[in-house]
């Protein structure tokens, strides 16, 4: 199989739906062996089964259920990648939650869920991946899925935007900490994307039209739009790119329209 990721082993959290699923399929099509993490409930198990069906016939794909906010889940993902595919070269911290809520009435469980999954989940899973990469001694690539919300505020996102800023900051600091081990760490910053997390927002015709009109490319992103930039960051095409942030938002964050 020819591809940019032939011989590489990748793991992706939240890898059975939305952006994570699109990245997983992109990696598989480029020749990588892929471990995907998913929550483990009935719905996510079905998504994993459908991913297996959609993957190329010769794909090397395995799955690990678990809550990324728990430290042991990150280790389980790494252990599965090593057991099935012999190592780990690429790690994508994609799993996340996003709920629009009023700031003045926000309740503690909502804040806790965002901190748990988005911040703790990214920290513990990338730490486990980095430990394995350091032990292997052959470098690697870690990608954190942040958001344009790392730079932009939102009236109903006071509990969410700081978690995405944290992921961006985490990738920058990890780039410093892991550079001596030749491990590159970068952030991908999607704009509004047609995923289950954005479904409620995009169901509002006026909001969708506003986003499309304000975006220079004239549309909202599809999950597949994130796969190419992720492949770039995972591959040797970006072998001297570390601590970077790649906006994948169709230009909306620089548009005043």
Automatic annotation (TrEMBL):
Biological processes per GO annotation: fatty acid biosynthetic process; rhamnose catabolic process
Upper classification of the organism: Eukaryota, Fungi, Dikarya, Ascomycota, Pezizomycotina
Keywords from the named record: NADP, Oxidoreductase, Rhamnose metabolism
Annotated InterPro entries: NAD(P)-bd_dom_sf, SDR_fam
Any Pfam family matching the protein: adh_short_C2
Family named by the database record: Belongs to the short-chain dehydrogenases/reductases (SDR) family.
This protein's record includes keyword Cytoplasm: no
MF-aspect GO terms: oxidoreductase activity, acting on the CH-OH group of donors, NAD or NADP as acceptor; quinone binding
Source domain of life: Eukaryota
Gene3D superfamilies per the UniProt record, alphabetical: NAD(P)-binding Rossmann-like Domain
CDD domains linked to this entry: SDR_c
Protein's UniProt name: L-rhamnose-1-dehydrogenase
